[in-house]
Design a protein that fits this description.
CATH topology of the domain at 94-268: MetI-like fold
Distance between the termini: 19 Å
Strand content: under 5%
CATH class of the domain at 94-268: Mainly Alpha
Mean pLDDT: 83
Low-confidence stretches: none
Shape: flat
Order of helices and strands: HHHHHHHHHHHH
Largest sheet: none
CATH superfamily of the domain at 94-268: MetI-like
Radius of gyration: 24 Å
Number of helices: 12
CATH architecture of the domain at 94-268: Orthogonal Bundle
Number of strands: 0
Structural class: mainly alpha
């Protein structure tokens, strides 16, 4: 297992280098600059700003300087917030984004697994068609459509839940979490249904039924571990997608997370902030995929590099 993890970490280093390199040059080759304003800036002021942020150097020198700082864990200062660093801004917004992602993934797992298991136990019946039809609707409804719909119904018409904020009033975390997690709950429902159907058709499940074991015991003790294997492999990119997709949800519900900083940085051409956020989420995606692959190998030892084929 340790060899597997070290091998994946070794693969992550060149991937991160490619991400940093492409993002660095793309943001700097984009039209405009971080200090462009509607009013003309005096040349001496512009020269001083470029010198302060090393923008007067060649592109190659800026790149090497950034890599050196990055190796020390320094993502640089924000161009639009001169008194704050990118590290500080990410640290201030990350807890809220992570909390939203946690609630969304818990919602997605609970609803998705429950729907998938229930549907697999009565395949091709009404008990299967209803949850799978709802799952298809969930897949087809993006968060920027579902969010306003939930706000309209539960926030404006019924007045049950708040429509904005985070932690300022009771219940204001429910709608954002459901909005963000619904699409992934739908995917998990369909994936877990397929995995459970395959496992439930195995001979050892038939043997367990012949012994008179209850359906609950068959599912929880014998079938669930193999049935959720496809879900585990899906969880790495799913969690990363949840965190990245939270930008839209944070904008809809006015949540003070990382999405606010990233959107502001894109509009303001804040080079270091855009680059820092991209590196942060790229590293997060790699880490989450590594965790998901490690759990998958733990569940299925045949996937280990030194495993012998049976």
């Amino acid at each position: 297992m340790l060899r597997f993890i070290l091998g994946r970490l070794g693969q992550a280093i060149p991937v991160m280098l490619v991400v940093v390199t492409i993002t660095f040059f793309m943001v700097r080759l984009a039209p405009g600059g971080p200090f462009d304003t509607e009013r003309a800036v005096p040349p001496e002021v512009m020269e001083a700003l470029n010198e302060r942020y090393n923008l007067d150097q060649s592109m190659g020198a800026q790149y090497l300087n950034y890599l050196g700082n990055l190796l020390q864990g320094d993502l640089g200062p924000s161009f639009k917030f001169p008194n704050r660093t990118v590290n500080e801004m990410i640290a201030s917004g990350a807890p809220t984004t992570f909390e939203l992602g946690l609630y969304a993934i818990v919602f997605a797992l609970v609803i998705g697994l429950l729907a998938g298991v229930v549907a697999s136990l009565r395949a091709n019946t009404l008990q299967d068609y209803v949850p799978m039809s709802l799952a298809m609707v969930g897949i087809c409804l993006p968060s920027f459509v579902l969010g306003p719909m939930l706000v309209l119904v539960f926030g404006i018409w019924l007045e049950w839940l708040p429509v904005s904020g985070w932690g300022s009033s009771a219940g204001d975390k429910i709608l954002p979490s459901i909005t963000l997690g619904s699409t992934y709950a739908a995917y998990i429902a369909r994936i877990s249904r397929g995995g459970m159907l395959e496992v439930l058709s195995q001979d050892y499940i038939r043997t367990a039924r012949a012994k008179g074991l209850s359906t609950f015991r068959i599912v929880t003790v014998h079938a669930l571990r193999g049935g959720i294997t496809p879900v585990v492999s899906f969880m790495g990119p799913a969690i990363a997608g949840l965190l990245a997709g939270s930008f839209v949800v944070e904008t809809i519900f006015q949540i003070p997370g990382l999405g606010r900083f990233f959107i502001q940085a894109a509009f303001n051409r804040d080079y270091t902030m855009v680059l820092g956020m991209t590196i942060f989420f790229a590293g997060l995606i790699i880490l989450l995929n590594l965790i998901a692959d490690t759990v998958l190998v733990w569940l299925n030892p045949k996937l280990r590099p030194n495993a012998r084929p049976s």
